[in-house]
Structure formats: C-alpha cells, structure tokens
Amino acid sequence: MCDKYRLAAEAIHVEQELLREAVGSQDQVSAAHGGLNRINFHSDSAIEVNRILIGASRLAELEQHLALYFTGFSRTASEIAQEQLKMTPHKKQELNRMLQLVDEAETILSNANCSLNELGRLLHESWQIKRTLTQKISTANIDEIYQAGLDGGALGGKLLGAGGGGFMLFYVPPERRGALRARLKNLLCVPFSFSNRGSHVVVYEPDEAYDQSLSHERSLVYSEHTPIDRHEPAPAPMARQGTA
Predict the structure, then answer these.
(1) Which residue has the higher pLDDT, 8 or 78?
(2) Which DSSP category does 35 fall into?
(3) What is the pTM of this model?
(4) β-pairing, 66-70 with 188-189?
(5) Distance between CA 84 and CA 139 in Å, rounded?
(6) DSSP code string of 103-156
(7) Could you tell me if 122 and 99 are in contact, meaning their C-beta atoms sit under 8 angstroms apart?
(8) CA–CA separation, 229 vs 237, rounded Å?
(9) Mean pLDDT lowest for which of 7-21, 110-124, 199-213?
(10) Residue 17 three-state SS
(11) In this predicted model, what pLDDT tens digit does every residue of 151-194 receive, in sequence order?
C-alpha cells in the first residue's frame, strides 16, 4: 500500500512520462490527497501539500456558496496545456498576480472574520487573468456562460482544469442559487461536496484471502481452457473463405 504522495507521484509519472501528455500535476495531487489544500509546486519538482485550516461549519458554508455546472463542451486538456507552456515565459506578470491571489484566498478561507464573499470576487479576478494566458482557455460560448452566471447572481467563478470546456464553478450567495439555476437552466448542475479522504482502496482482496476450494476450482477451469499444449504442434491454419 502506498501513501498519498507516492500515489500522486506515480499518477503524474504515468501521464507525463509514459503517456507523454502535456498535462499539469495538481489534479493528480488533489485526487490523491482529498480535502481543501494549498499545493505548492517547487522548481526542483518537489510538491508540498498543506491542509487549509478551516472549521467544519465554515467549510459547510463555503459549500453552500458554490455551484458546479457542465458547460456542455469537452476538450483535450493536453493541447491547451501545451499552448500555455509556450506562453508561460511571456506571462510572468499575470502568473505572479495569480500566485498572490492564492495567498489571499488562503487568508479568506482560514480567517473566520473574513467574509466568504471576498472569495467570490477573488475568483472573478483570477478567471479574468487566467482567460488571457492563451487564446484556447476560453471561447465565446464559455464567456457567454460566465456572463450569464454573473447575471444570475454569482459573484465570480472559474473554468476548472486547463480550459476550453469542461466544468465551470460559480460562487453564488445561497439566496441567489435559484436565480442562477434559472439563468443557466440549459446547463447541467452537478451537486458536489468536499471529500477529505482522497483516493482510497474500496476493495482489497489479496490471493491469500480467497477460499482454498475456490482457488483450486479456478485452477482447474483455467487449465481446461488452455488452448494449446506447449509440447503439441499447433494446428494448421484454416484456409480463408473466398480467396483465390
């Protein structure tokens, strides 16, 4: 059994090294660890995961202010991420500001004296910056959906993932959720809640745990279905029908 850091590292290795996909690392880390975290990616490839200190009641309040909608558009994340990598050297000012917003978001979430509505406005600023990083992150349809969300009462939001499609998260006061649903009635609203467990084993059945009689029966069944004995010559191939 591996720990969460190793699980995330192996998932990143499969996607980036074996499959050669131009994707980031935060999805794998978030899925492995679960919960509400600040994830720091260091230049030496080290990954640091720190749980944000937030009480249960404030976390529940945050959930009540978030609404997730499927945009109806799918995209290939690696293509968008590849374009973003090309533009990164030219977007240092924007990226530095986005990093500052991470600090501000952590302060808002962990300080019970801060209004969560500030997070909504922060998400709006962050999305306005992110959508300028490349021309592939947002589209006219996505911009229309986002504006409809604001018109419906949301204070801010962002497109999740690399961009180009997928899911959009809105921050909306609870009393405006109905108006938001009405404004986005043609989109699928996906209820969700935070999970602190992250990735975990649902079923673990090592071979030793199987009933011995079942193991014996399984061996017999497999042996009966062995197609060719290694010491017997393979049957001659059958002639194809309709060939000259």
Answers:
(1) 8
(2) S
(3) 0.77
(4) antiparallel
(5) 15
(6) HHHHHHHH-TTS-THHHHHHHHHHHHHHTTS-TTS--HHHHHHHHHHHHTT--E
(7) no
(8) 16
(9) 199-213
(10) helix
(11) 999 999 999 977 778 999 999 999 999 999 999 999 999 999 99
Cα→Cα distances 73→44, 138, 187, Å: 35, 11, 11
Q: In sequence order, which residues have a C-beta less than 8 Å from that of residue 54 and are 6 or more positions away?
A: 36, 62, 109, 110
User: Bridge partners of 3?
Assistant: none
Exposure string over 6-43, b if 16+ CB within 10 A, otherwise e: ebbbebbeebbeeeebbbbbebbbbebbbebbeeeeee
Domains and CATH numbers, the chain: 55-189 (3.30.70.890)
| Side-chain-facing half-sphere of 211: CA atoms under 13 Å | 4
Q: Which tokens hold the place of 47?
A: 């990954």
Query: CB 68: neighbour CB atoms within 10 A?
Result: 15
